Amino acid sequence: YLDGLEDILTSLDDSFVLSIQINRPKARNALRTNLLKELADTLDKATHDDMVRAVVLTGGAKVFAAGADITEMADKTPVDVMNDPRSGYWMAIRNFPKPMIGAVNGFCLGGGNELAMHCDVLLAGTNAQFGQPEINLGIIPGAGGTQRLTQMIGKSKAMRMVLSGQFMSAHEAEKAGLVAEVCEPELTIDKAMALAKTIATKPPVAARLAKESVLKASDAMLAQGIAFERRSFATLFATQDKAEGVSAFMEKRKPTFKGQ
Ligand code: HXC
To answer: Which atom of ligand 1 is nearest to the CA of 109?
Structure first.
């Protein structure tokens, strides 16, 4: 769909559905900056393309996305985070005005789960596992996760996930309202495509305004929380516990946190 993409695969069919697949299997689909940029650029083009009426976003069979690329985060300071072009790419994803269906199989973690929550409808395979494990790295979600998760599954379940880093199964995620439907993993993409194709037969302007209207139910409240979360996320990059969490992940050992 766009030339020269390295981290995502795209295809547009004649039913007005653009498929985007996250494709960095060696790094478990970690969302390095280039990947987010490619996603944002693709959605920017799709915004202005009448041949696109709906998008299906998917990952791999075992991993939707394992979150931000931890190796990229290792040396960042709070100022780096505040000036990070990633915020702009997230903004482009957040502002994409056409319906986007997420099809999740396997691990959907950290920034990966935050990306999934930017989709308008989520379908999941029975093998999907959702989590916000940032706390294990000495940080917190930084792309709206604390806000969207709380809104979608309620305070208690969101707190459990964000504070403990524990994962949630596909069935629990469906019960909690994070995903619309759970199916056999082989069917997730087909079902998402079918839904996207149905949506693509609807009047595009009405679909766009329907999406915008549904998001208005929460967006105004979210904005303040997202800004607060972002600042807290940046602040944590000054802590020794973040350095320890990231080093421990890269050295494949258990971290020891000291509250510094
Ligand atoms: C960079 C990663 C990665 C990540 C995995 N890899 N996740 N690299 N960033 N997020 C790399 C590993 O280092 C390893 O590299 C290779 O991918 C395979 O990983 P394994 O752990 O051996 O795979 P597996 O046993 O299959 O386990 C998969 C997994 C696990 C459960 C997804 O990799 C995992 O827990 N990953 C980290 C998840 C996480 O903490 N996410 C939150 C990130 S923070 P080598 O070189 O050894 O092959 C975040 C902040 C969001 O998202 C902020 C948004 C602004």
So the answer is: 41
